[in-house]
Design brief:
473 residues, mainly beta, Methylamine Dehydrogenase, Chain H, four-stranded antiparallel beta sheet, 2 helices, 2% helix
Length: 473
């Protein structure tokens, strides 16, 4: 799927007795994560052809309004990051534009990062532009926010593909400023040869030392099953680059797909970081969408003092009770992952997309929700969502091969910090009109509230391969 998501999540929390503050790497600034206009509610940002659209939430997405921003020279964003880089209480939006080399007077794709400041009236019209410095380097292929120097300001990491040079922008009172890449130590930060691309980077405090760690999915790494014409898969790896007093690294550890239990199915295609259980460590959520005939799996690797231990992982699939869980082969569960506290119990819940999940019947994707708990993730009482189940009478028709429901996911807080809502993108909905559909499921004490789900049309253009979804970081 040529779809992107920013590395953001709803606030995580600790055990029932004590809700801990969100990790600084996820939530720069004093406001609600992803709150651009400062009204106390998270706003959604969706990348489209030549720009992005902001869904300014007004209690519910149904009562929200949508504003379209066109990037300079009609550039196409491939990734987004939403964070308050200058601590003014308003989230800012960074758009990575790897194909915008012509702004340098170059005929190659040097790339750029366009950063729009948030204000009480929304985003400013003119961005701060940071141009790529490597000819054909595709700067901005991936943008991710992380507090690299542990000063409580969100910084921006712009990762190129295999050819380009890394860009580090440090946050501060005046916004983002370029900095040396030495702050990353020995952390591997080149784009994977293939994989979830901008969804393969996440950040959080995995070892509980109070410093941000960088988590990178490398689905193409590790041991292979078969070779040549007999090639049947690769296990995939997750790299954890630990924070130190001045930045990231050089301490690095690895988690391998076979050790986790996802086999040879490209663990790390997507990653997220959340607080799933009741200890003081952030946990890693990783997708392995090509497990067992492309049904897919999602793994939670729990954080620990000396780093995560693969043998303590919980692996979730489409299992459950009753016919509603009997999905077709090829769901690709784990193609997208996110997490947030949907039911307000103090633990982050895991949300995983399988955009090819319903090909056998309604040709629609699916989303699975697994609730966090005191000790670990609960997998026996998972919830399955589809577009047809949510809106039985919805017309418009899917694209060939499915509606893509679940290709992009995000947890955000349009109702305040207690209950996270879940945003799901169906980029293939009414593709002949290039509409796309954003569905928002509000959180509640009993979990995700399907009966009050809302939809916003005209949010994407699937055929232009730049549709994405992002929320505060």
């Amino acid at each position: 799927m040529f779809l992107v998501i920013a590395a953001g999540a709803a606030p995580s929390a600790a055990a029932h007795e004590q809700r801990r503050a969100p990790t600084a790497a996820h939530h720069g600034g004093p406001g609600v994560p992803g709150d651009i206009d400062g009204d106390g509610r998270s706003d959604l940002v969706v990348s489209v052809h030549h720009g992005f659209r902001i869904v300014y939430t007004r209690w519910t997405v149904h009562h929200s309004h949508v504003v379209t921003m066109t990037l300079p020279d009609n550039a196409n964003p491939s990734s987004l990051a939403v964070a308050d880089f200058n601590h003014d209480g308003h989230a800012d939006v960074a758009a990575g534009n790897p194909n915008s080399g012509y702004r340098n007077g170059s005929q190659t794709s040097d790339g750029s990062i366009d950063v729009y400041d948030g204000t009480s009236h929304g985003l400013v019209a003119e961005p701060h532009v940071f141009l790529g410095t490597t000819a054909g380097g595709y700067a901005g292929e991936v943008v991710a926010d992380v507090d690299l120097n542990h000063d409580k300001y969100s910084d921006l990491l712009a990762i190129p593909d295999q050819r380009g040079g890394l860009t580090v922008l440090l946050g501060g009172p005046s916004g983002l400023t370029p900095a040396s890449t030495d702050i990353l130590g020995g952390c591997p930060t080149r784009l994977a040869e293939y994989g979830g691309q901008q969804r393969y980077v996440a950040t959080g405090d995995i070892n509980g030392d109070g410093r941000s760690d960088l988590v990178i999915g490398q689905p193409e790494k590790g041991k292979q099953l078969g070779h040549g014409d007999d090639f049947r898969g690769v296990e995939g790896e997750i790299k954890i680059c630990y924070g130190n007093a001045t930045g990231i690294g050089p301490k690095v550890s690895s988690i391998h797909g076979r050790a986790v239990g996802s086999g040879y199915r490209e663990l790390g295609w997507t990653v997220a970081v959340a607080h799933v259980n009741g200890d003081r460590f952030d946990d890693i959520v990783a997708g392995a969408p090509f497990h067992e005939g492309d049904n897919g799996r999602v793994a939670v690797v729990y954080g620990a003092k000396h780093g995560p231990i693969a043998s303590r992982s919980t692996v979730a699939d489409q299992g459950g009770r009753g016919p509603r869980y009997r999905t077709g082969v090829g769901a690709e569960l784990g193609d997208s992952v996110t997490a947030g506290d949907v039911n307000g119990d103090g633990f982050s819940d895991v949300v995983a997309g399988g955009p090819m999940g319903g090909l056998g019947k309604d040709r629609g994707g699916e989303v699975m929700i697994y609730y966090g708990g005191e000790r670990r993730l609960h997998t026996k009482h998972s919830i399955r969502l589809t577009l047809g189940q949510t809106f039985p009478h919805l017309t418009g028709g899917p694209r060939f091969g499915g509606d893509g429901f679940g290709s992009m996911l995000v947890c955000f807080n349009p109702r305040g910090p207690r209950f996270a809502s879940v945003g799901v993108l169906a980029p293939g909905y009414a593709v002949h009109h290039k509409l796309g559909l954003l569905v928002t499921y509000p959180g509640s004490k009993t979990g995700v509230d399907v009966s009050n789900a809302t939809r916003t049309r005209h949010v994407g253009q699937y055929m232009n391969y730049s549709t994405g979804l992002a929320i505060g970081a």
